[in-house]
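Pilot study result, target chain (438 residues):
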Amino acid sequence: MKQIYLISIVLLLFFTGLITENNSSWSQAEVLVKGKVTTETGTPVKNAIIKLGNTDGHTNSDGIFILRNSTFPAQLTVKHPLFSEYVDMIAFPERWRDTLQVLVVMQGKETALDEVTVTNKPIFWVYPRKQANVLDFILQPDDGIILCCSDEKTYFMRGLDAQGEKLFETPIRRHPRQLFRDCMDRIHVVYSDSIYETSIINNSIGAFQVTSASRLFAYNLLKTCVYKDEKTLVKYNYYDQDQRIEFVSYNIQTQKKQVMYVGEDRKRFKQLSEFARNNSISGEQLFHSLTVEELRVARRLWNNTKFYELVLTTPVYVPLFELNDSLVIFDHLNDSAVVFTKAGVRVRSFPIHYNHFKGWKNELVTNLEKTKVYARYEIDGLTTLREINPINGKVERKIQLEKHIYPKHLQIRDEFIYYIYDDYLDQSMHYLYKQPIR
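Predicted structure:
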């Protein structure tokens, strides 16, 4: 068995390496990167520490640095004890040049505006009842919160006001998988075998089960719908072992549909197909192996098949969000964001590189007001959010969640980050906190 697991681990490392190589940064011809580091008034900053990708250097007395790099996008970090740390992604030149010019403007720590790091901010209990175990929550536009929680072995949905006081509650049958808000802003309680639609009237809430024949179909349909108004509905579908996502817009009045956008990773799909083909196993092989060698081969193929099903077939992350008056698709496979009207008409695109920062979790979070978008990063359990400008893809500011590690279910409303945290003394209890990001 040790030999079988060793083979599986080797295959895991080899195959993961292939995938990582094809989906992260890409190699190009070597580029000479010449940069100048100055203050906001144009004064050169000497002895600043420079890191570009895996290359290190420093500025001279004129604030100049020269480095060579062949892998892009590359993270550029500039540090100096008198200034706030500067972090940016350097992309490969659109038009081939063997020299890339970079200007870095440093800001004093007391007046840094380019990438504001919010630290030492108070952390608030949102619902501090010790006996209430918060399982999930959804923020409401009226400043309220819908909680799914338990008191010992009894499960409830509870409505809170802006101050965290309980307004109403209704019992639910057992521990749900999640609370889910669909594209029409309706809230559902989702179980592994059923789904309940909720209705809130005044200070009461009801939960109504979808009919047995259509409940799973209804949930699968609802979760793929990402936008709806009076005229248009937009949904997505995955194909090719989840390595291809297709967004389709439907005209509700004419019933016509059109493909808005397709994001796909063809190289990964080919690798997955070849891996699955080479490791397929039949019931005859699995249950009727006669010799030791046949049994060894059957076990190896079975292990690799489960590894393929549980680990390798991660869907491509190409999400669509409603932001302000537009629909924006963030294609992390091609380092670009594509802007559409709400009728599904393509308007423009712009480059994105925030997904190459260290610790990127393949997750974007929008605020409830649908005006801002944040990228999530995690290093050693500590979570950082970078606010991304929805117009040009640049990093606006950085927010650190320093009090708790591994926060769950991040949601944002009114310049506050809400999240669930597992109590470090009692892992069975989960509490709801919020942190200001102003």
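One observation from the pilot: Residues 2-23 form the longest helix (22 residues). A full batch analysis is planned for the follow-on phase.
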